[in-house]
Amino acid sequence: MSDALLDADALEAAAPGATKLGVTPATWLAVVGLFFVAGVFEIGGGWLVWRWRREGKSWLWGLGGAVALVVYGLIPTFQPPAAGEFGRVYAAYGSVERQECFFA
After folding, report:
1. Domain containing 44: what range?
2. pLDDT per residue over 35-88, tens digit each?
3. Whole-number Å distance between alpha carbons of 36 and 40
4. FRET pair for 14, CA 20 to 30 Å: which of 22, 31, 48, 97?
5. Contact assessment for residue 41 and residue 75, using Cβ atoms and an 8 Å cutoff
6. Tally of domains within the chain
7. Long-range contacts: 16-24, Cβ < 8 Å, 24+?
8. Is 82 inside any structural domain?
């Protein structure tokens, strides 16, 4: 790493309000908010499809679930470029989700 990355004064001059990682609090809030919204659409979509297929609800429940899951797939494209490489963000999400399976 370059010394400039570790120098807080240089960081503040380059990106006012940024953390040591070079990301502003607003960017972090956007990332966390998008993860939360993605989770709602993922769980909600799966739940709607489940109700349609397993509990005999109207096909509209299945359609709603399908739409929610498509939206879930689109949400990651709204990650701010300043959040870093998207692949790493998505991998972190996937690893947290897998760990949740072990404790559920």
Report:
1. 24-103
2. 889 889 999 999 999 999 999 999 999 999 999 999 998 988 888 877 666 667
3. 6
4. 31
5. yes
6. 1
7. 22/82, 23/82, 23/83, 23/84, 24/82
8. yes
The pLDDT of residue 6 is above 50: no
DSSP string over 4-60? HHH-HHHHHHHSTT--TTS--HHHHHHHHHHHHHHHHHHHHHHHHHHHHHHS---HH
d(CA 49, CA 9): 52
Both tokens of 17, joined, read 């309000």
Domain-located, residue 7 = no
pTM equals: 0.66
In the 8-state DSSP scheme, what is residue 79? Answer: S
